[in-house]
Specification:
Layout: E1 2-6, H1 13-26, E2 31-34, E3 51-54, E4 72-76, E5 79-83, H2 100-105, E6 111-113, E7 121-125, E8 128-132, E9 147-153, E10 157-164, E11 170-177, E12 197-200, E13 202-203, E14 222-223, H3 226-239, E15 245-249, H4 258-271, E16 277-281, H5 284-288, H6 292-300, E17 303-311, H7 315-320, H8 327-339, E18 343-350, H9 358-372, E19 376-381, H10 389-395, H11 404-416, E20 424-426, E21 437-439, H12 444-456
Parallel strand pairs: 1-2, 2-3, 5-6, 6-8, 12-15, 15-16, 16-17, 17-18, 18-19, 19-20
Antiparallel strand pairs: 1-9, 4-5, 7-8, 9-10, 10-11, 13-14, 20-21
Helix pairs in contact: 3-4, 4-6, 8-9, 9-11, 11-12
């Protein structure tokens, strides 16, 4: 679909009309997008036989109205596009507004259309194409003349040109081919794998019965055919040859046999000459079922980090949550993997013991972590997910979720009893009330002090992350 893109017309109606005329008559566009400042000016073009999408600029009156969407994610010929006046969140945003940073980090769109800066731009970053068509003023203090963009969307390719309004010469152009790699959504990855190429080698989770987890509820576990995976790797290498990190999804792909994983890793190393590491979700079965020699072979092929959800060190809480593995099994698998130089990133889940078993949860989790001594440790905060057994128990009053203050006290009790050596700690996930980071043991006292200070000021505005900004 041929699409015209403009922004920042700022009352320059003649230039806006001129741009629309060029786009419709010369480029035969079927869709026109206005990125704001001033979006209401599209009213003068209602007689055009093209579809019009417009979002308001951050200083327009429309930006303050809750019934008008300030940002959109639209699919154009199969390409997901973020349509926004700004490339970042703005102080005038409404609470429900889409956050561009989140869209970019989680790669919820392949193309970002934005304006605001009055500077035409066309570039690719983090496998996302960014398009700023410039402005339509007669002149601008930043030195750029009026311009617009033409994007030709097809199923597998988008070609973009930024065009000078006055003499119609091309200021910049770029063609982007769609990655032919196949995905079955939803697709998840750890926050630290945000820049990684995600390669699904399994679909879903082989356990998929944890009471708190809704990630793979709509997927049946299956192993992808090896030849299909290798084909995806070859296709991905053509469009992302610079790839340095790969994450092997879905839920617990480490359960695959060693020979299968070796074949995948060998092809990754072959097709991506700059590959530095591969990461993977793991459970105890996947690690404990493999010999040390097998784990060592995988490490040589750059499978160097695995992510494991301990959630809790309490056997009773794990059983109640239907985790499927004991704390002892998870302790042993972390120790075994790290003996083979595979770094382990362990996740704990604050609040999983509810308000009645918070102390047990904290103390036994700290004990399990001390025995593991993982390379990385992340704390997430429980948020009941609709469609899960825990959510149903929560709604019926059978599970009492600790308040924010109690979650922080639980985290403090865990950290207080940690005796880790060299572990890198993070609690900066979107679910958490207080972002923290540090390294044990040297930052332990600072972490405790930060929590104590927050608890002392818990009733002050913005002392913790507000509920509407939390997420999974």
């Amino acid at each position: 679909m041929k699409t015209g893109i403009v922004s920042d017309s700022h009352g320059h109606y003649e230039n806006l009309k001129k741009a629309w005329k060029q786009m419709v008559e010369n480029h035969k566009v079927e869709l026109i997008i206005h990125l704001g400042d001033d979006s209401h000016e599209t009213d003068i073009l209602n007689d055009l036989n093209v579809k019009i999408i417009a979002v308001p600029g951050v200083y327009e009156e429309a930006y303050k109205k809750e019934d008008i969407k300030n940002r959109l994610i639209e699919e154009i010929s199969g390409w997901k596009c973020l349509i926004s006046h700004t490339i970042k969140s703005h102080e005038n945003d409404l609470p429900q507004d889409i956050k561009p940073e989140e869209v970019i980090e989680k790669k919820l769109a392949r193309i970002v259309l934005y304006g605001h800066s009055h500077i035409p731009a066309l570039y690719k970053e983090h496998d996302i194409l960014f398009i700023n068509p410039g402005h339509l003023k007669d002149e601008d203090k930043k030195g750029y003349g009026p311009s617009y963009a033409i994007a030709d969307f097809t199923e597998n390719m988008v070609s973009v040109e930024i065009i000078d309004l006055n003499d119609e010469h091309i200021l910049n152009k770029m063609t982007e081919e769609k990655n032919k790699v196949r995905y079955i959504e939803p697709v998840f990855r750890p926050p630290s794998e945000g820049d990684s190429y995600i390669l699904q080698i399994t679909y879903g989770c082989s356990h998929n019965r944890c009471s708190f987890c809704g990630m793979y509820r709509k997927k049946h576990f299956s192993i992808r055919p090896l030849e299909e995976i290798l084909e995806d790797i070859r296709d991905a290498s053509k469009v992302m040859p610079w790839t340095r990190r790969v994450f092997l999804a879905d839920g617990d792909a480490f359960i695959l046999k060693t020979d299968f994983l070796v074949s995948v890793l060998e092809h990754l190393n072959k097709e991506f000459p700059h590959l530095q590491r591969a990461g993977i979700y793991a459970n105890p079965h996947g690690i404990l079922s493999k010999k040390h020699e097998e784990l060592g072979e995988l490490k040589k092929l750059k499978l160097s980090i695995a992510y494991l959800g301990l959630e809790s060190g309490s056997e009773d809480i794990l059983k109640s949550a239907n985790k499927g593995f004991t704390a002892e099994e998870m302790i042993n698998c972390v120790i075994k993997a790290q003996e083979c130089d595979i770094k382990m990133s362990v996740i704990i889940l604050l609040g999983l013991g509810g308000d009645t078993h918070s102390k047990e949860h904290a103390l036994k989790t700290a004990d399990a972590l001390n025995r593991m001594n993982p390379k990385y440790l992340s704390a997430l905060t429980l948020m009941p997910v609709p469609g899960t057994p825990l959510y149903e128990a929560y709604k019926k009053g059978n599970f009492i979720l600790p308040e924010a203050e109690d979650m922080l006290k639980e985290l403090r009790l865990i950290i207080e009893h940690l005796e880790l050596k060299g572990t890198i700690f993070r609690s900066d996930h979107a679910s958490n009330y207080l972002p923290l980071k540090g390294r044990f043991p040297k930052d332990k006292e600072n972490l405790l002090s930060d929590i104590d200070y927050t608890l002392e000021h818990i009733n002050e505005e913005f002392s913790i992350i507000p509920e509407f900004l939390r997420g999974l």
